[in-house]
Amino acid sequence: MTPSTTGALSISDGRLALSALLVLVNVGLSAALRLGLGRSLLLASVRMVVQLLLVGFVLEWLFRQDNAPLILLVGAAMALIAGVSAVQRTRHRFAGIYLNSLLSVMASSALVTGLAVTGLIQPQPWYNPQYLIPLLGMVLGNTLNGLSLGLDRFMEGLRSGRDQVETDLALGATRWEACQAVVRDAIRVAMIPTINSMMVMGLVSLPGMMTGQILQGAAPAAAVRYQIVILFMIASATALGVFAVVGLAYGRLTSVDHQLRLDRLFAVGGATPSPATWTFPPWRRRGRG
Amino acid sequence: MPSHSAAIDRSLLLSGKDLERRLGDRLLWSQLDLELAAGDRLGLVAPSGAGKTLLLRTLALLDPPQAGRFNLLGSPPAGWGLPRWRAMVSYLAQRPVAAGGTVETNLRAPWRFREHRGQVGWSHERITSWLEALGRDPSFLRYDAERLSGGELQLLALLRVLQFDPTVLLLDEPTASLDGATTAAVEALLIAWLAAEPRAAVLISHDGDQIERFATRTLELQP
Q: In this complex, is the C-beta atom of B21 within 8 Å of any C-beta atom belonging to chain A?
């Protein structure tokens, strides 16, 4: 358990097991409505329990460590997982996309979290894992979403807007002049969840970290300060990461000869709709002939 | 960068040597030599899928190079820079697209490209005189570009490229969606425009009569 003296009430094994019965609500609903979700619900529940229990042990061990390289290594491993996951949701890929995502995640989260622990929050020492690891985790979790959205939007935007981009190129545009609308759109879309969550923060959602601190007995006013810092961290890390990953993808999918290199894209899996159903932009559908 | 006016007297405008194009494993054409002199109107003749569009895209350097050497007014592409090359060897795509806004917005937009800044710029008189030649009212400029018919979209795309006065115009079925009268007007407009300066054009058309009417010579791609 945590060394805190004013900790939250601890949950016994029996009550923990009791909480698992709550998932029966979902299973029952799925069965009644024949949603066919029973299997995945159970699997997701089991994964969640096992992963969190393991993480509990790992964190207890980790928080006892006082070894900067080891803690940074754990941080790097977290960033690696985030970088890979960001690519998993995209419908198209190109060679080097994982490396691009990894570089973007690492650079943005290291910069922002580094500034936070050395300047804003200042735990002693700066690599104190009890601060560094949860902060990094929250930054990575949100950056990952931004990267995923930004990458997917950028690649699909180039695909659907290909004719427009090449029309501009054919009229003497540079690759940036031809692609900037797609780049901007991808970055804008990637930032929407972060901006939305800041907009309604405290009104609609009480973030997990703040809830946790309050349960631990922290004064809400102090917990709120942490939350403000973390939200600014998340927003800046997401912006930096998205900017980097879309920029790198732009470099990869265009050439210095101002050509569009969609030949470098390949579809993932068999679930992609056929190009025939992809009549976007809509003006291609209208008024033919 | 070579000066435009010094080279303009030479009759050879554009040349491509040893051009080759593959699509996957399939060899579309190879060892293709092509020369365009001022006044040339070259008709490209080949069955569907033989790579006519790809030849035009190749000349506009829109695709990564596969093989071949290119020369425009005595200089290779690297000497011009790719945006300048494409402003002078302009490809008019088979499927024209327009962005949001009016026809005029779309015609004005490319003038903002760095390549065209500092030039004469948008000319309302010139565009309306062309519209008149095509039998369209100047109110066409105020139409919503996203609601144009396929034929109107082709006219928009033609005017959009023509206003930059490219040296070589690469036309990919430019009248496929137009009625007979407008098609004839487009052909007449193009022939007059080509004759006004040392210019050349390449035309793809699946209308054999149009090739007959428009082209001064033809090139047949053997599959």
A: no
pLDDT band at A30 (very low <50, low <70, confident <90, very high): confident
Residue that the structure tokens 């100047």 belong to: B138
Q: Which of A174, A257, A287 sits opposite B150 (nearest CB)?
A: A287
Measured over the CA atoms of residue B208, residue B213, residue B214 and residue B219, the dihedral's sign is positive
CA-closest candidate to residue A118, choices A131, A106, A105: A131
Q: Are A183 and A154 in contact (CB under 8 A)?
A: yes
Residue B203 · residue B56 · CB < 8 Å: no
- Per-residue pLDDT at B126 exceeds 60: yes
B119 touches chain A (CB under 8 A): no
Of B82, B116, B148, the CB nearest to A257: B82
Token pair in block for residue B31: 């060892």
pLDDT tens digits, B71-94: 999 999 999 999 999 999 999 999
Quick check: B82 contacting A, CB < 8 Å?
yes
pTM: 0.84
What one-character-per-residue DSSP string does A213-279 give?
HHHTT--HHHHHHHHHHHHHHHHHHHHHHHHHHHHHHHHHHB-TTS-B-GGGEEE-SS-SPPGGG--
Burial of A195 per CB tally in 10 Å (0-12, 13-18, 19+): exposed
Mean pLDDT of chain B: 91
Q: Are A63 and A129 in contact (CB under 8 A)?
A: yes
